[in-house]
Structure prediction request, 338 residues.
Amino acid sequence: MSIHRKVKWGVMGVASIALRKVIPGMRGGEWTEIVALASRDMKRAQQAADALQIPRSYGSYEELLADPQIEAVYIPLPNHLHVPWSIKAAEAKKHVLCEKPISLTVAEAKTLLPVRDRMEVKIGEAFMVRTHPQWLRTRGLIQSGRIGELKAITGIFSYFNRDSSNVRNVPELGGGGLLDIGCYPITMSRFIFEEEPTRVAGAIERDPEFGTDRLASAVLEFPSGQATFTCSTQMVPYQRMQFFGTKGTIQIEIPFNSPTDRETRIFIDDGRDLFGGGLVEERILPCDQYTIQGDVFSQAIRMNGEVPVPLEDAIKNMAVIEAVFRSAESGNWERPQA
Prediction:
């Protein structure tokens, strides 16, 4: 194994996803070292840092950005704070891995481009699924022609949460299902088709109390085929992605919240009958997609390569999300405007 110097990371915020999944995952990486954690509440920062064995804690994000040892920051703040703090981090000469969605609008996301280029840092969106072996395998199988010509993708992603104090249920903070989880089938449909949708149609049901989108469905029309998905914040917890070609199908069993303690499975069917007579199951060894994401990002820093989901890709994904919202309002097909 080659000897390399780990990238020193700081974490801005004590969000649940960071404490439960991302930090433990990144700490297991060969290229990443988390050296500091910040919260606007010093006590919370200290408690979280102690629990996760992180050496330094700060009572403000500004203090963390002033730490000269930190080379990169991971930002798991509420959606409306992503762009402002990504800009501040970049201006402090820190590389930025920001939770999805990177912004609330295309216009807001685009404000990150000049600061990234001026400060010569890397800014990427944290779609950890883009680096998971089950997705790379699925993409490779489709590229190899295993299911013939890819024509359709369908996806569903849902959970149930009616907690009024949860940021996901507050519109002003960027709440709602499309920004929180609908972004996943969108980014992965683009990843698998390796194209951008030319137009989209969307339908949205809003929570009468919160005003957030609690049920959203969309059709994305690509040059090569179509993708459809449904996401919901008030439905039974479920997730699945399916890919249909001219000669077969592929299904990813747990596409987004893949477990770290057991194998993940993809199912390939040649379609010889409707009873699964041609079904083959592939098992992917247990892994942590947050470990992989952190290491691939850190390697991009050390080797001056491209991060897994660069800003340009994040902006294109945001353009599709915006178009779904517009279509739900207008009742018409809408074109993504990146």
